[in-house]
Write a structure and sequence with these properties.
By secondary structure, this protein is mainly beta. It has no helices and eleven strands. The strands form two sheets. Strands 2, 4, 5, 6, 9, 10 and 11 form a seven-stranded mixed beta sheet that branches.
Length: about 110
């Protein structure tokens, strides 16, 4: 069955960096576009970034453009989100999603605080 498992979250100071990973299994990862979302307390899930199957095209939300980078390694069946210059408002649970079929991971908590 399709499984998506995020990792790499944690506590980081403002201005710091984190790299999130999403390990995919149960399907041919290279055949699907993938996305990262986040959800802050009391808010809906926000689409952050999407990457096409070969990684040739990426799209970002204005809130993270220039700070976050989505990438994929199809040989490792892994999706990444490099997050730089983190701000307190980036505090949220971060999820990866396979759009086709609407599959989600369990999420990983990112907390940005001094």
């Amino acid at each position: 069955q399709v499984q998506l498992v995020e990792s790499g979250g944690g506590l980081v100071q403002p201005g710091g960096s984190l790299r999130l990973s999403c390990a995919a299994s149960g399907f041919t990862f290279s055949n699907y576009a993938m996305s990262w979302y986040r959800q802050s307390p009391g808010k809906g899930r926000e689409l952050l970034a999407t990457i096409t199957v070969a990684g040739g095209s990426t799209i970002y939300a204005d809130s993270v453009k220039g700070r976050f980078t989505i990438a994929r390694d199809n040989a490792k069946n892994t999706l990444y989100l490099q997050m730089n210059n983190l701000k307190p408002e980036d505090t949220a649970i971060y999820y990866c999603r396979r759009l086709a079929g609407n599959y989600w991971g369990q999420g990983t908590q990112v907390t940005v605080s001094s």
